[in-house]
Design brief:
heterodimer, A: FAD/NAD(P)-binding domain, D-Amino Acid Oxidase, Chain A, domain 2, eight-stranded mixed sheet, 10 helices, 26% strand, B: alpha+beta, Folate-binding fold, four-stranded antiparallel sheet, two-stranded antiparallel ribbon, 2 helices, 6 strands, binds flavin-adenine dinucleotide
């Protein structure tokens, strides 16, 4: 069914009886050409592009819970193309271009809103680093503008400009960055994949792999054995658990990241603001709530909930940047499990096991990557060669010394 | 989270910084035959279990000792705390040169 304004009016006049489910509820078949584990944004986007762009047939997405119940439904919805390193920025720019056409592509309102992202700087050194990053972004076809304090003041007069310790000296503005309605994006890809014949199978947890002579033959699931020509894992925070079932150890630790939303306010913050002197970022949802977050809790966790010290730290950072925030009531907080990699960058690669592919290590930044990660994993599955923007995302890069460490933190996942 | 420090009693986890898997105590032998491979695995690969995890915490805002904390990563429950020094001494590798 195609969605349109006309359709909404027609359905309104006929008692909304014509709407159909977004995707079919199917039982798993005994065999597929490609099985994708994980019905988050990445798994669904992979299935969609594999079927649509690469002519894939007989594809299944296996999801242990429900579509949108993982990180894709828990993130703070920021999309941006403002990385610096060569291995990253062409990929994120590719992703941004896919976001720009996504709603037309999927015929689905994902509320893609390029409201601009402003990274604040507070010292001369930080300004120089931002200038360099902005130049790298522009070289890769993205956009960046360096603002001085007055430039920032004209956009957000209520920030704490004259903080004695961390005065705001300006910011790097990335106008094409913004936010996207996160679960709409998952539903949109699920609907699109389904319409191209992909089976989306929920409540189906992968519990093991059948591997013979170094080749994967299929997966054991809570709904029985499913044979597969190729298997791709796209399970975000569960990456080590799932790949562990295939006997692999990964350069990944799982950590919890919390997010917060305030009571609904009148329009206050029109774009996304990030604090340069503490870890805090904030935007305002279309419902009016301020959506914000900060650091990961910092210890290995699969609990999907964090602890109070980080709540306090995030809120303190927020109030020191936006003093008015002190008057706002916090409505909810929640957590999601991040697949933190050893250099802060992701993997889209084959594994040493024939027919088994891995996509993960997205840390706290995989939402913005969803369209490109799906496209690039589909490209890899279909052609066995990496997409040109994803050649650096190799699983063996620590062995070969080709880390992609944007923050320069080394092999310490909780610092990326 | 409260970490029951063997010397100081229960301390708030926010007094500590976290390093990671306690396997980091078991540094490979740099003269070993597979030293390159062993160091790659030691530095970059993790078991990352969902469940019991032995991990290194540093009491940065306290007595600056290293602890090995056994914690459930699914519930954050802490089941045991030892001095990392004692754990390292008890590890086989160190048996010979404990003096
Ligand atoms: C609080 C928070 C804020 C964030 N903010 C941002 C942001 O602002 N911008 C940004 O770009 N990124 C952000 N992220 C990161 C982003 O959400 C993730 O990197 C991204 O969603 C991961 O890809 P996914 O959507 O495929 O993951 P998920 O939605 O987690 O999908 C993985 C799926 O795999 C399933 N699964 C796991 N194990 C199995 C199994 N054995 N069998 C079958 N299925 C299984 C899970 O149930 C899950 O549905 C944030 C994350 C969190 C938690």
């Amino acid at each position: 069914m195609r969605y349109s304004g006309f359709r909404v009016i027609k359905e309104a006049l006929t008692g909304h009886k014509g709407w159909t489910p977004h995707w079919r509820d199917v039982a798993p078949k005994s065999n597929y050409d490609v099985v994708i584990i994980g019905g988050g944004g990445h798994g669904l986007a992979t299935a969609y592009y594999l079927a649509k762009e690469f002519g894939g047939k007989r594809i299944a997405v296996l999801e242990k819970g429900w579509v949108g119940g993982g990180n894709v439904g828990r993130n703070t919805t920021i999309v941006r193309s403002n990385y610096m390193l060569d291995g990253n920025e062409p990929f994120y720019e590719f992703s941004m271009k896919l976001w720009e056409g996504l709603e037309q592509e999927l015929n689905y309102n994902a509320m893609v809103s390029q409201r601009g992202i402003l990274n604040l700087y507070h010292t001369d050194g930080q300004r120089d680093a931002f200038r360099r990053r902005g130049n790298a972004m522009i070289l890769n076809g993205s956009d960046a503008e360096l603002l001085d304090a007055d430039g920032v003041r004209s956009m957000y007069p209520f920030l704490n400009f004259d903080n004695a310790r961390f005065p705001i000296k300006g910011g790097l503005l990335h106008r094409r960055g913004g936010t996207v309605r996160h679960d709409a994006e998952a539903w949109g890809y699920a609907r699109g994949a389904d319409s191209h014949g992909v089976d989306i199978i929920q409540n189906c947890e992968v519990t093991g792999f059948r591997i013979e002579n170094g080749k994967v033959l299929g997966v054991e699931t809570t709904r029985g054995y499913i044979g597969a020509g190729k298997v791709a894992s796209s399970v975000a925070g569960s990456s080590s658990r799932v790949m562990g079932l295939a006997g692999m150890r990964l350069p990944i630790e799982s950590h919890v990241l919390q997010a917060f939303v305030s009571e609904g306010l009148k329009p206050t913050i029109r774009g996304v603001i990030t604090y340069g002197a503490g870890h805090f970022y904030c935007s305002q949802s279309d419902k009016g709530g301020l959506v914000f977050g900060g650091d990961i809790d910092g210890y290995n966790s699969y609990a999907q909930r964090g602890n109070l010290p980080v709540v306090e730290d995030v809120v303190e950072s927020g109030v020191s940047l936006i003093p008015a925030l002190g008057r706002v009531r916090l409505l909810r907080s929640w957590g999601g499990i991040m697949d933190m990699s050893m250099d802060g960058s992701p993997f889209i690669d084959k594994t040493p096991i024939d027919g088994l592919y891995f996509n993960g290590g997205w840390c706290y930044g995989g939402f913005k990557a969803t369209p490109a990660a799906g496209w690039c994993l589909a490209h890899l599955l279909a052609t066995d060669r990496p997409h040109e923007t994803a050649t650096a995302y190799r699983l063996d890069r620590f062995r070969t010394g080709r880390m992609i460490d944007e923050k320069g933190m080394g092999a310490q996942p909780n610092l990326h | 989270m409260l970490i029951n420090h063997p010397l100081l009693g229960p301390r708030d986890a926010s007094e500590f910084t976290y390093l990671g898997d306690a396997n980091l105590l078991n540094r490979p032998d740099w003269q070993g035959e597979n030293a390159v491979e062993a160091f790659h695995d030691y530095l970059y690969l993790r078991d990352n279990p969902a469940g019991l995890h032995r991990e290194l915490w540093f009491h940065e805002q306290g007595d600056r000792s290293w602890l090995v904390v056994t914690r459930n990563t699914l519930t954050h429950e802490i089941l045991g705390v030892e001095m990392a020094r004692d754990v390292a001494r008890n590890n086989k590798r160190f048996e010979g040169d404990a003096q």
